[in-house]
UniProtKB/TrEMBL annotation, chains A, B:
Keywords: FAD, Flavoprotein, Oxidoreductase. Its cofactor is FAD. Its EC number is 1.1.3.15. This is Glycolate oxidase. SUPFAM superfamilies: FAD-binding/transporter-associated domain-like (SSF56176), FAD-linked oxidases, C-terminal domain (SSF55103). InterPro entries: FAD-bd_oxidored_4_C, FAD-bd_PCMH, FAD-bd_PCMH-like_sf, FAD-bd_PCMH_sub1, FAD-bd_PCMH_sub2, FAD-linked_Oxase-like_C, FAD-linked_OxidoTrans_Type4, Oxid_FAD_bind_N.
Length: 499, 499
């Protein structure tokens, strides 16, 4: 939307269009499926990125595909924007509502439609919670692999929209690697089916395109996921290091040895201590960093890999290596990692979680750069991350009650992401771009590349009605961001100078 | 192009535009890189689908990215179509030239640019042969997994364009699962980079979209592939069955047991006998069908899986099970499978290879349906296929010198693909759509779905200059195809009635 937008795009006109849509929705849907009162709308004003809030114009909760089609057709006809929402656990503001728009909740699409243990697939509605799939198929010895930390709450539709990862995605892949097919509704209300039960499908690979598309291309109403056999044996080991760089190098050495652990996580001293104090996982409080490594498979294979990993860790200088003796011990090792985000509340009132990804070989170098940036911004950063796939989650600690700290934290976060790009990485590993990292997309991509993204977006959504303003910045915005980064004709960020 | 195209689209006008492009190319590129003489152009008149032939308007062989950009800019400016070509081994006519167009060969892009054994990646040019990558990285104990039968000749650029598979894709995935990044040139000459060394990348997943896009979206000039560690142990077993259905059910049972073989191939009696007579692989000539199963991994795991597979095969009614004793025996077992296509030349002068994919559980049912269709068309069909992933390769045998046989073979091929779709499968598993299966795409997809494909294509190539007429049919074409299928108001194909 530029400054010379026609008068039809004023807020008043947009409000009038929304009013027409609401009136029509109230005749089309059951009364309890259209929320216009302010208080119940507040539930939807933010997702997991709670620093950004916006009350939606209205909320609809359809419970049939035909109703979703009707909502989208109406919004298309009246040019009213639509933001789809699953459980609202996203961390990048991807489900942030629009004041003059419709918030379309898929909460009522919560059925598992079919489980085929022979084909090892499940056909589910988008509002099914991630963990519910694994629970439902456990009786067949199967599980659904991607396991974001929010898996007890987040829904599979949101997982597809964000291409969610988790601890196990190093071995078992991201959501895109575990989704076989979807049905979605286009911005003008058509039902389209992509993929299916076969390994490949002819035509353009629109299925992969949907994974991580952050609600920009269509509204997903059904998903077929791949199920995997539960591994017969699991082992978890914990290694302590006196030096963060040595821990980073150990990660690279494990992968270089041809071993793909089911999970390979790293925590620095700050977050190790916070987690230990919080859940008493048995972590060494004096280690500069710890690694958690999970191996799974048949007994012989897992044992062989465990021995190999122990040797690599010793060679890399681990000061202490412990193998969990049983399921309870394994759960305790993981409990600290899983509680890392809330545990950071013990050391600071607020935290800002970043999600950059870097080549594994740069872990030590980028961690040092993050320390330097933190000192420069006079803030503390603790690091907990999916080390095996180079996906960092630096937590910038701050206190929102201290004037200027939130702004400094956001600025530092942006600098950290730019450092990830400079190292050959990306601004997001699994949390999506949303509204949070939209400026950093200007650092990641060229104008030609962003233009191509916009062209593909327009091929699905000509009028830009689906989740506008998220995920892909306009070229105008990038020009503006570029100007902010330049002082006296000089690019001010050392990170950007490397481009 | 419709019947009322403006006069600028007559053949004469198109020829004039091509003439202008050729004149400009001759000043831009070295003389040996622009082929206009008829005889040397003949080399490019078909790919592996030799039934379709067309002399290209001219052939260019650029050897730098800047030259590819110049060629595309020129063609864009003059609205001249461009068909990109790798080794020309494709089986669906994807590289079929256009009379008034440019054939852009990537043959000179044949360098391996970088091997990173630690990150386990290789950065290569598109004209590098598939097998050259595995050869180059063997010294590091690594290999590149997708292995189409044509791997000694086909190039990695063509593999990406067709999303090629191979014997090992059941375990290691298709090309899309093994490509980490590409650089491509847009239809108007911009260089765009997608993906990289990290597991995920922000923005829309255009990288996956490129895999299998059949040259419609851009011209790939660089590819970063994932490398895998060579498995320490490999076992191959052969099982004979007196009944084709029992062999099909054995395949489903192996997968259902949670075992993912490195390869799981099936051959029926016709092709088993032809292959045995051709290469003396030691196949049982009296079996109704044979299965070849390859297992790989560490010694203990592979041994455990071998025992499990043997038991499953016995339970499924295998009459004979043999495990290859050594590397020579393993090579002999595979030699027959790899020579299956040429071996069919012993039983018929010509063959037409289909590439449908079906859910594994339908193998027995679809094979019966294919037999019935073959009888109806008075032609013989032999079957050799990637059973583990349900990817059928029925070979329709015919004699082109017998009037009407080619037409009958094509008709039967179409019916077979439609039967695959009716069983919940797709019209292509790994050979692409090209010109060969374009009518069957009308059976596979709805008008809304095809419209979405066209919109995405247009987002990359507004003027439809890149490989026009391939892969995705126009709605007009489908309407025409639909009319051909209806006689006296009745749909004539039993396959279609199931939709």
């Amino acid at each position: 939307m530029n400054a010379t937008a026609p008068h039809g795009n004023t807020t008043a006109a947009a409000g009038a269009r929304l009013g027409e849509v609401i009136a029509a929705l109230e005749t089309l849907l059951p009364a309890e499926s259209v929320i216009v009162d302010t208080e119940p709308r507040r539930v939807y004003e933010c997702d997991g990125l709670s620093a950004y809030r916006q009350l939606p114009g209205c909320v609809v909760l359809p419970n049939t595909i035909a109703q979703v089609q009707a909502v989208l057709r109406l919004c298309h006809e009246h040019r009213v924007p639509v933001v789809a929402r699953g459980a609202g656990t996203g961390l990048s503001g991807g489900a942030l509502p629009i004041a003059e728009g419709v918030l379309l909740s898929l909460a009522k699409f919560s059925d598992i439609l079919e489980i085929d243990p022979l084909a090892r697939t499940a056909r589910v509605q988008p509002g099914v919670r991630n963990i519910s799939i694994s629970e439902a198929v456990a009786e067949f010895g199967l599980f659904y692999a991607p396991d974001p930390s929010s898996q007890i709450a987040c829904t599979i539709g949101g997982n597809v929209a964000e291409n969610s990862g988790g601890v196990h995605c190093l071995k078992y892949g991201l959501t895109v690697h575990n989704v076989l097919g979807i049905k979605f509704i286009t911005s003008d209300g058509e039902l389209i089916e992509l993929g299916g039960q076969t390994l490949d499908s002819p035509g353009l690979d629109l299925l992969a395109l949907f994974n991580g598309s952050e609600g920009m291309l269509g509204v997903i109403v059904e998903i077929t996921v791949k199920l995997l056999p539960q591994p017969p044996v699991t082992e978890v080991l914990l290694a302590a290091f006196d030096d963060v760089g040595a821990a980073g190098n150990a990660v690279a050495a494990i992968i270089a040895a041809g071993i793909i652990p089911a999970g390979l996580e790293m925590m620095d001293q700050g977050i190790t201590r916070a987690a230990e104090d919080f859940v008493h996982a048995g972590y060494p409080r004096d280690a500069a960093a710890i690694l958690l490594c999970e191996l799974d498979g048949i007994a012989e294979e897992t044992r062989a890999q465990l021995q190999a990993v122990e040797q690599i860790l010793r060679d890399a200088g681990a000061s202490d290596i412990r193998v969990a003796a049983d399921a309870a011990a394994r759960a305790r090792f993981w409990a600290g990692r899983k509680a890392a985000f809330p545990a950071s509340g013990r050391i600071a009132p607020d935290y800002y979680c970043m999600d950059g990804t870097i080549p594994r070989k740069c872990i030590a170098e980028v961690l040092e750069r993050i320390s330097a940036l933190a000192r420069e911004h006079e803030l503390e950063v603790v690091n907990v991350f999916h080390a095996g796939d180079g996906n960092l989650h630096p937590l910038v600690l701050y206190d929102v009650s201290q004037p200027g700290e939130l702004e400094r934290a956001e600025q530092l976060g942006g600098r950290i992401l730019e450092a990830c790009v400079a190292a050959g990485g990306t601004v997001t590993g699994e949390h999506g771009v949303g509204v949070e990292k939209i400026n950093q997309m200007c650092v990641q991509f060229s104008s030609a590349e962003l233009t191509q993204f916009h062209a593909v977006k327009a091929a699905f959504d000509e009028h830009g009605l689906l989740n506008p303003g998220k995920a892909v910045p306009t070229l105008n915005r990038c020009a503006e961001f570029g100007r902010m980064h330049v002082h006296h004709g000089q690019i001010s960020h050392p990170e950007l100078e490397r481009f």
